[in-house]
Design brief:
With 186 residues, the chain is α+β, with helices and mostly antiparallel strands. It has three helices and seven strands, in the order ββαβββββαα. A hairpin with a 7-residue loop joins strand 1 and strand 2.
């Protein structure tokens, strides 16, 4: 295994506090990390990723370079998810809950002030390792730790626009329980 540390990346599809089963697989803690390749942090993160991948390829695959679809990285333009356009995505998962800490490296629980949510900026530790078995050759990223770094804009999970999809009802036309009972003979 080789440790990869990503700094100041944006958190997406974060399942950090509850393991979730995806595609009929075992429940895992997981997240995707959005890297802006035009920033200094982004360039440094991608250089670190490349260095770790080349190290694993040399040690595990006799220097053979893995195709991109066999790596835990993807082009953000392919899926069109909120915040992914023009960015690079690295994803990781683990059956074991990752260490989650706040800005002062204090442990945090879901809902705490420094608790990372999708859209926030984080630092992350991934362990990358090479797999060569009956499923083929690939490099996997195991999600080990996440540190909350800064608040980001939350991703919108719904296409509902409350302002245009609902009318303002206004007034106080509330109905009491006794009104309902009287109306329906209860």
């Amino acid at each position: 295994m080789a440790k990869l540390i990503l700094n100041n990346v944006r958190l997406s599809f974060a399942d950090l506090f509850t393991a979730v089963s995806k595609f009929d697989g075992d429940p895992k803690f997981s997240a995707s990390f959005i890297i802006d390749p035009s920033t200094e942090d982004g360039k440094a993160n991608l250089a670190s990723f490349k260095k770790v991948v080349r190290q694993i390829e040399a040690e595990k695959f006799n220097g053979d370079e893995m195709p991109t679809d066999k790596l835990p990285i993807q082009d953000g333009n392919v899926k069109g998810y909120d915040g992914w356009t023009d960015n690079v995505i690295i994803s990781g998962a683990n059956k074991k809950r990752p260490v989650i800490v706040g800005r002062q490296r204090q442990p945090v629980a879901e809902g705490d002030l420094d608790s990372p949510q999708s859209g926030d900026y984080v630092n992350v530790v991934l362990d990358l390792w090479g797999m060569n078995n009956n499923y083929g050759k690939r490099i996997i990223a195991s999600l080990e730790a996440v540190q909350y770094a800064a608040k980001g804009v939350p991703f919108v999970a719904s296409s509902v626009d409350v302002d245009s999809d609902f009318d303002d009802i206004g007034g106080d036309d509330s109905v009491s329980v006794s009104d309902v009972k009287d109306t329906f003979g209860l």
